[in-house]
Design brief:
The complex is a heterodimer.
Chain A lengths: L7 E5 L7 E9 L2 E8 L7 E6 L2 E4 L9 E9 L3 E10 L2 E10 L10 E2 L2 E9 L3
Antiparallel strand pairs in A: 1-2, 1-10, 2-3, 3-4, 5-6, 6-7, 7-8, 8-10
Chain B lengths: L3 E2 L11 E5 L8 E4 L4 E3 L3 E3 L2 E4 L7 E9 L3 E10 L2 E10 L8 E11 L8 H5 L12
Chain lengths: 126, 137
């Protein structure tokens, strides 16, 4: 599968703060690594570099072997994030599913809901 | 940053109901969402995870669900936008067919909400885990 098309430094299209500031994607053969940088709290400023768990082709009913999407997972102290990204019309569309861990009702801590995000990124200049 | 998970359940009203594919040629025909399960065509039912659009809002707008269908796995990632359920379908194959994992997106409209929808065939046939049908559509 052609995954080179994911490679690059992807910048957020939204001028305002959001969940993710930028996404760097590197490929090594059939392996894809993603590095994410947070935009606004509670998003960590640096999420780190992880290997994509699964890479998906664009469609099932064609012979197209171009990579269309990938899945990556992050785990932080208080929450886990499943990242699902796909290419669409030159944009990297990144959805995240943020799921908090731990006991509820801890005194003095902000209470946050599990959250879904979908944000858009354009390819930055090399 | 330390946080506490919300102690109250999300309001699921915008997601609950009987959703039908807007495209008659779509691979998935129907998704039924209740407070404790998501049912798809003849795949059966699984427990979903529900998500809000913001960290503070107790109203759900999205869910994810994972179907283990034996030789193929499907992750559904869905959110409501302008009354449409936008569903990302991530399919992985673990058989010897040589098929590539694939990504797809489909759109659903809600044809019923606020009452118990009629059960899917899979719910009537089996109350357990989804079964492998050998086909993806």
């Amino acid at each position: 599968m052609d995954i080179e098309r994911f490679a690059g430094s992807w910048k957020k299209t939204n001028e305002k703060p959001q969940w993710i500031e930028s996404v760097d994607v590197e490929t090594r053969g059939d392996i894809l690594y993603v590095s994410i940088f947070g935009s606004a709290a509670p998003s960590p400023p640096v999420w780190g570099r992880v290997r994509a768990g699964v890479i998906y082709a664009t469609r099932s009913d064609t012979t197209d072997t171009r990579g269309g999407g990938f899945l990556a997972n992050y785990s932080f102290d208080d929450f886990d994030v499943e990242v699902q990204a796909n290419l669409n019309l030159g944009l990297l569309v990144v959805a995240t599913f943020v799921k908090f861990r731990g006991e509820s009702g801890q005194a003095g801590l902000p209470v946050l809901q599990d959250r879904f995000t979908r944000e858009f990124f354009f390819r930055g200049e090399a | 940053m330390s946080v506490a998970p919300a102690s109250t359940r999300l309001d699921l009203d915008v997601l609950l109901g009987d959703w039908r594919n807007t495209n008659p040629e779509g691979k998935l025909k129907r998704i039924v969402v209740s407070s404790d399960k998501v049912s798809v065509d003849d795949w059966g039912s699984v427990a979903p995870s529900f998500y809000s659009f913001t960290f503070e809002d107790p109203v759900a707008g999205a869910f994810s669900a994972f179907f283990n269908l034996g030789f193929w796995w499907v992750r559904l990632q869905a959110n409501v936008k302008a009354g449409v359920l936008v569903v990302v379908v991530l399919t992985e194959f673990y058989d010897s067919s040589g098929r590539s994992n694939f990504f797809d997106r489909e759109f659903f409209h809600r044809c019923s909400a606020g009452f118990q929808p009629a059960p899917l065939p899979a719910d009537e046939a089996q109350a357990g885990s989804p079964r492998y049908t050998g086909e993806t559509s």
